[in-house]
């Protein structure tokens, strides 16, 4: 499939992206330490191909959005690592948003939104977590492009991408949508019945049987609409950030941000915002089903190891060949080599 070209029409002038790279990769910390003797967060590591997860995410996002409109959110403590400094050094300086510390995805999304609202109040923004693996990148970005077009035609819309599960993983977030997945969606997406974040194993099996999608957290929305949704869903978080609105872009900016973060609770965006949308926002919310795309959130060592084995890549977790049903799974077949070469 041909790559999606950025800014292919004049309507794309206000397209922006937020790359979430502020997490500390807590669930993989022990694994990383065993391999590196440090705690470099997983998004800065090369698990497959020549790029880190963050670099893969940036490369993917730049199929639609120019580098100067991609805001990368990191935590201050990440800058102690040479790899992090190297990976962000080539980015436009004004696009690196440094959090005093990681306070989960609620703050990780709201802080760059505050910056973006100052720079371009008419912005239409997409959010990309940096710890996701996506094999069919062009196809996935075609769905993101479609989501942009939906929101650009109706600024009240919030469009979230959901992928079809291949197993009932209780560590994922799920989206229950209205209607059947085979039904036509002329308005551009499905209505959302419910969000379920990390359900118990039995509940995960039940909702997958009922056709639920995995929540990718890749959403497209206007900056104005998302700020309004956050304010309504979690007013305490929004009020905590209000002092930043006037401080951003002034000499007082860092001092104000540091003070706000000192008392800031950790808030998960999916749990506290998506699950608590106002009636108006929920009425305008759509999920866009993504088919034919290999998508994984590499949040656990088991999930990472399983995906790498399926790709035929060297296993970061268990580098030796894995024995299955009495025979070794080989990592050097022509098919697997071709797969790895595609993942630059």
Rg, Cα atoms, Å: 20 Å
Strand content: 15-25%
Task: Give helix and strand order, one letter per element, not per position.
Answer: EHHEHEHEEHEEEHEHHHHHEEHEEH
Shape: globular
Major sheet description: 9 strands, mixed
Distance between the termini: 16 Å
Number of E-state strands:
13
List keywords for this structure.
344 residues; alpha/beta; 9-stranded mixed beta sheet; two-stranded antiparallel sheet; 13 helices; 38% helix; disordered C terminus
Question: Would you kindly provide a written description of the structure presented here, covering whatever features stand out?
Answer:
The protein is an alpha/beta fold and 344 residues long. It is 38% helix and 19% strand. It contains 13 helices and 13 strands. It has helices spanning 29-36, 53-61, 82-89, 104-119, 137-153, 201-209, 223-233, 235-247, 253-262, 269-272, 279-283, 301-311, 334-342; strands at 15-20, 70-75, 96-99, 124-129, 132-134, 158-163, 173-177, 192-197, 213-222, 285-290, 295-297, 323-324, 327-328. The strands form three sheets. Strands 1, 2, 3, 4, 6, 7, 8, 9 and 10 form a nine-stranded mixed sheet that branches. Strand 2 (70-75), helix 3 and strand 3 (96-99) form a beta-alpha-beta unit. It is globular and about 50 Å long. The model is unreliable at 1-10 and 319-342 (pLDDT under 50).
Q: Helix and strand layout, with pairings?
A:
Layout: E1 15-20, H1 29-36, H2 53-61, E2 70-75, H3 82-89, E3 96-99, H4 104-119, E4 124-129, E5 132-134, H5 137-153, E6 158-163, E7 173-177, E8 192-197, H6 201-209, E9 213-222, H7 223-233, H8 235-247, H9 253-262, H10 269-272, H11 279-283, E10 285-290, E11 295-297, H12 301-311, E12 323-324, E13 327-328, H13 334-342
Parallel strand pairs: 1-2, 1-4, 2-3, 6-10
Antiparallel strand pairs: 4-9, 5-11, 6-9, 7-8, 7-9, 12-13
Helix pairs in contact: 4-7, 4-8, 7-8, 8-9
